[in-house]
Amino acid sequence: MSGISREEESYHAFVTARYAALRRTAYVLTGNHHDAEDLLQTSLMKAAGVWGRISERPEPYVRRVMYHENISRWRRRRVAEEPLGAHDVVRDDDSERSWERLMLTDALARLTPKQRTVLVLRYYEDLTEAQAAAVMGVRPGTIKSQTRHALMRLRQVAPDLLARADPVPEAAET
Amino acid sequence: MNHQLSEAFHELAEQATTTPISGSPPSHELWQRGRRARRRRLGASVLVVGVAALVFVGALVPIVGDSSRTTPPPATFDESRLAVPDHIWAPSSWARTADEAHPPGPLALIASAPRQKPWLTTTTEEWYGVSAADQTYWWLDLPGRATEEPGVLALSPDGRRVGYFLGGEPTGPRAHSDVTGFAVYDVVTGETYRHSVPTRRGLAPYGIAWGPDSDRLVVSYGQYLTPNSSAFGPTVAWDPYSDHVEVLPMPRSWDGAGMGLGGITVCEMDVEGTVLVVEPATGHTRRLSFSVDDARSVARGAASEVYFNPSGTAAVMKGDLPLGEGASTSGLHAAVVKGRRLVEPRLLGVNWQLNRILGWVDDERVLTEAHPRNGYGLRYITYDVRTGAVDPAIRHTDPPGRGLQASFAQDLLRRPFVAGKAPPRPWHPWWGWAVVPCGLLAGLVLSFARRSVRWWRDEQRLLRESDR
């Protein structure tokens, strides 16, 4: 590209290279394509504002913005959206969709964004409690309790999904 | 770890790829929007700071501007409409203030009332004046007034000048008073005339009064020797416009002077029942006397404040009011003037205790400040020296437990009283000019600071975490 700065050039390179991966995380966080796209673009836009400081390692910043933005967007809306269950899910691959995935999508939609984000950090990003706590800016005990509450909630709304899962840890809240 | 959940998440994540991205990621647009948002945020910050600075300056200008206002012309008024109001109120602490730049015009009366300073919650007793032209209320911030003798003030009979003791620095090393002279504030022109008296430890002010022509201030003072004693000084008549001072042949100490027969009057009842009438302009002195028996019946050693009526045919004075069983208080005595003799003394209004004589309303009625013999509360009442009748004259509404100490322009007492006007109750002066803008400013700054701190904290945390 001509007429663009080196900063912008590196930004374009990063977005092109990591857009798909980041979109997957955004989708897991939000549960639908539209919100995922919105969340990702907002996070990338914020990253552009501070690109001079994060250009060396931009992805951790973008991911953290996504986690926080996902929670604060829900706070700004104030009114929790009522999930429509399977109707809210894009059905572009009905033939290959497993029953479990449908249940998980539906169950995740019934969690709060914070609970969903914690589960994503712990079971999708495979972070430890301490790492997840560092990302969220809270204490590890909070992550532990949020995880426990989220799993309990999942058991309630999708008992079959976690039927074969390990028991919910009864860790003390801190 | 819950492997099933982890696998389900990864399977779910793969669904994100089932909706293909239309074209390449909008990185160029995101870059532009991101940079634009950052510029907007910076611009908003600059704007908020600028607006805050403007509001702050706007709030300061009226406060600072007070000291740089130009001197207005002397107060204008209709001479024929000057009168004393029939009702007095205590003014609001935020009433207008009379000073050299803002003369109120002729005053019908001066009195004291509690006043709160804008920056304090406590009150102090301060003097105010009521305009004889429009019955408006003005606090009197008299230039250079001594702080240690706040109760000594004199309004001229025509209501156009206020005499007071001047404050300053005595020349000696150990001052016992800050009184170093006397001054006159002209309420029509706003000018102040000062006369300093050399003193090493400060002056002890005894009395201050105006001559009947309103052109000379008569002052009695001494020189402090120790904190509790002072050497008697002279009584002087001072012409503030020529700064001419003349020593008067009067007692070395007096605190309550009366008026009449062309001069100021001082009672010497403790000597031989004599009333001195001194013309301030010339120093000419006359003596009028009671008989010894009459003097004893009037005063028994404590008479003062003799006022002669306009025609010079009668006099009233503060004398003795027996309460029985040897006790006594102050009452109003009247006498007839016959040549150099005061005859036929009699006690008026036995149901009233006299505080002060304020002046003659006409040739037969005299206005006084008194309170009921068996009750409380100051009243402004007139005594009729011919019939002895006592009538209410001026009502007042002031805070409980506070004395008015009102002094009236005696020349104006002889005109019909006019209906008093209740002074307005303005809001705290800082409410409009400082409190509202500063409150808004504080709210704005706090809101902005809160948002900025939150944003900065999030930003820093994200940056910090992303560096790990």
Explain this structure.
The complex is a heterodimer of chains A (174) and B (468). Chain A has eight helices and no strands. Chain A is mostly helical and 174 residues long. Chain A is globular. Chain A has helices spanning 6-30, 33-49, 51-54, 58-77, 99-109, 113-124, 129-136, 140-157. Chain B has helices at residues 3-15, 27-65, 292-298, 410-413, 429-467, and strands at residues 87-89, 96-98, 107-116, 123-131, 137-140, 153-155, 161-167, 179-186, 192-196, 203-210, 217-226, 229-239, 244-248, 258-260, 263-268, 274-278, 285-289, 304-308, 314-324, 327-338, 341-348, 352-360, 365-372, 379-384, 390-397, 407-408. Chain B has a five-stranded mixed sheet, with no helix packed on it. Chain B has a five-stranded mixed sheet with strand order 2-5-4-3-26. Chain B is elongated. Helices cover 22% and strands 37% of the residues of chain B. At the A-B interface, α1, α2, α3, α4 and α5 of A face α1, α2 and α5 of B.
Instruction: Bin the strand percentage of chain A.
Output: under 5%
Topology pattern of chain A, helix = H, strand = E: HHHHHHHH
What value does the average pLDDT of chain B take?
Answer: 83
Query: What share of the residues of chain B lie within helices?
Result: 10-25%
Tell me about the largest β-sheet of chain A.
none
Task: Average the pLDDT over all residues of chain A and give the rounded result.
Answer: 77
Short description:
Chain A is mostly helical.
Helix and strand topology:
The complex is a heterodimer of chains A (174) and B (468).
Chain A lengths: L5 H25 L2 H17 L1 H4 L3 H20 L21 H11 L3 H12 L4 H8 L3 H18 L17
Chain B lengths: L2 H13 L11 H39 L21 E3 L6 E3 L8 E10 L6 E9 L5 E4 L12 E3 L5 E7 L11 E8 L5 E5 L6 E8 L6 E10 L2 E11 L4 E5 L9 E3 L2 E6 L5 E5 L6 E5 L2 H7 L5 E5 L5 E11 L2 E12 L2 E8 L3 E9 L4 E8 L6 E6 L5 E8 L9 E2 L1 H4 L15 H39 L1
